[in-house]
Each structure stands twice: as C-alpha cells, then as structure tokens.
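Cupin domain-containing protein, pasting as requested.
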Amino acid sequence: MTNEVIDLGNGLEIHFCLDAADTGAQFTLFKVVIHPNAKVPAAHYHDNFDETLYGLKGTLSLTVDDQVLELHAGDHYFIKRGRIHSFTNQSDETVEILAYANPGVFTSNYFKDILGVLKAGGPPDMARMKQIMLQHGLVPVANH
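Structure tokens follow.
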C-alpha cells in the first residue's frame, strides 16, 4: 500500500494513503496538510471524478460554486464532478483534511508533476501548471 508524502514546499503536504494501483482504480485516498498562508490550487473543477473532503484538524475555508463554508474537524463535504471549488487556510493553525477521489483516476502523479514545476526555480510556469491540471482531470477556472 502507498504511504508516500509529497511536500510541495509551499505550505501544502500531500500524504497518499491509497493510490489507484492499491484500489484497482476504484478510488484514491490522501491526507492534505494545509499550513497557514499556504499556496493552494486555483479554483477548479474535476471533469472525471468526484471528491469527498473530511475535516481532521482545524478549520478549512471551502468555496463550492458560490457557496462559502467552513469545514471543521469531523465535518465532510461531497464535491460532485463539474462543481467549481477552491480552499484556503485562513487560520493561524495547520489544517488537515482527508480527500477521497472516485473513481481512482486522480493519482499522486499530479502532485509529483506540480512539484517538478515548483522546483524548477524562479516563478512557476503558470502555463505548464494549467497543462498539468488539465492532464490530470482538473479544469482551472479564472476569476472565481
């Protein structure tokens, strides 16, 4: 089973629990650690998978379509594919959530590809970041 930590170096850590290879592509499961003032993904939607978030620690500010809500420890939220969403940690404490994506088409390779762009030095290549998002089923949404 997967037990891989991907530290994006921007206040986000991804702890993969189960990747597609572990579940026969049924789902992926990973913990996201979001430090205060972390750089988070642009508002986006998924075109080929649903995502469920479960709060483990702290309070996550989550926007889904035009609804703004807080996800606390013990709370959960189902994000159906096609719904625009984004999140931030607006608190002074570290937030942890568990993310369940199904089917298992969203894998740790997305975060590894993003890490490659972030480690290239200088400002991130935003065109390349968008290309990576699209390759992995995330569709960025500008001005949301």
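Note for the archive: The domain at 4-140 is CATH 2.60.120.10 (Jelly Rolls).
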